[in-house]
Design brief:
The chain is α+β, with helices and mostly antiparallel strands. It has 2 domains: about 100 residues, Double Stranded RNA Binding Domain; about 150 residues, SET domain (Beta-clip-like, Beta Complex), CATH 2.170.270.10. It has 5 helices and 15 strands. A hairpin with a 4-residue loop joins β10 and β11. The longest helix has 19 residues. It is globular. About 15% of the residues have low confidence.
Length: about 350
């Protein structure tokens, strides 16, 4: 097992995944890439079969996921530069991501495989289910159904050290209304807030980068490994009152603009549609790695996006918008791809 895992992913032999990505032959086309893991002399061999209509299949191999995908990313970047389309950032694209090893559903399944305990350098994201290691219950009568019922109350503890509450953002086009304000975090509750905020303001450009999202449109990605409970970036924009926000929303809709608004409190809204920062591009996820916090400082209340777990470099940042429930006519589909995806954002 030593050769079949890294710090971020496990490479099971026989793994197969079909990916859709940009073509190496045409700058504005996509094609299918069939990724697989095989064994070659006791070491993993990563294989990508390029399947594009009108061309014979091309088989590429490499000793690592990045090694084989670099053979694809370089010609893809050249074709896109020739056609003048949006520039890609291959340096930030990980082979594990392109193979699908870091997809939440895949990670859960792989981490449940027998023998994964031998992966010494791998960092488990979910861990094995503790129920799998428990002995079977003893039933004196020979049947669980004939045993008397027992009532067990389980109290789930709050895993976050801060009091940051998830809030809602109008990041999706077509959403109606402005979200409720996040819970306020004061220096009494979180003594290091001023220091963390100053550090975040000085370092946020090295924390994140903007790129195409697998969820929707553009997304914000971690440019380095980020520890849990770390302030990542501030949601900035123009502070306006509710009445102004309602008028601006109607105007943006008439101009067919994407609306980016965030409620600060019951009277004020931060409008990031025109004068906002990169934080407005953070997508929604039903299994988020970030939360939003309203931080009270001497210069007023600020909206800060913080990590709620360890985030690896190249991982897309996301938080739960927590939109109000709507009827079927106003439902917004969710494309986060999480295992616990609710299918709808509202």
């Amino acid at each position: 097992m030593a050769a079949f895992h890294s710090a971020n992913a496990i490479f099971p032999v026989g793994y197969r995944a079909s990916r859709i990505y940009w073509s190496t032959r045409h700058g504005n086309r996509r094609c299918r890439y069939l990724c697989s893991v095989e064994e070659n002399e006791g070491r993993p061999e990563f294989v990508v079969r390029v399947m594009e209509q009108g061309y014979d299949d091309l088989v590429l191999t490499g000793a690592s996921p990045k090694g084989v995908w670099d053979k694809i990313l370089e010609p893809v970047a050249e074709r896109r530069n020739e056609t003048g389309t949006l520039k890609l950032f291959p340096v930030y694209l990980k082979g594990e991501d392109l193979f699908g090893f870091t997809v939440t559903a895949v990670t859960r399944i792989v981490e449940s495989l027998p023998g994964v305990e031998a992966c010494e350098s791998y960092t488990f994201r979910f861990g094995r289910n503790p129920l799998m290691d428990l002995p079977l219950a003893i039933n004196p009568t020979g049947s669980a159904r004939s045993e008397p019922k027992t009532c067990t109350h389980v109290k789930r503890s709050h895993t976050l050290s801060s009091t940051g509450g998830s809030s809602k953002s109008m990041q999706t086009v077509g959403s109606v209304g402005v979200a409720e304000a996040p819970e306020e975090v004061t220096p009494k509750q979180f003594a290091s807030v001023p220091f963390q905020y100053r550090r975040m303001k000085a370092e946020w450009k090295s924390n994140v980068y903007l790129a195409r999202s697998r969820i929707q449109g553009l997304g914000l990605y971690a440019a380095r490994d980020i520890e849990s409970h770390t302030m990542v970036i501030e949601y900035i924009g123009t502070l306006i009152r509710n009445e102004v926000a309602n008028r601006m929303e109607k105007m943006y809709e008439s101009q067919n603009r994407g609306i980016y608004m965030f409620r600060l409190d019951c009277e004020h809204v931060v409008d990031a549609t025109i004068t906002g920062g990169p934080a407005r591009y953070i997508n929604h996820s039903c299994a988020p790695n970030c939360i939003t916090e309203a931080v009270s400082l001497e210069r007023g209340v600020k909206i800060v996006i913080s990590s709620c777990r360890n985030i690896q470099r190249g991982e897309e940042l996301c938080y739960d918008y927590k939109f109000d429930l709507e009827d079927d006519q106003h439902k917004i589909p969710c494309h986060c791809g999480a295992v616990n995806c609710r299918k709808w954002m509202n």
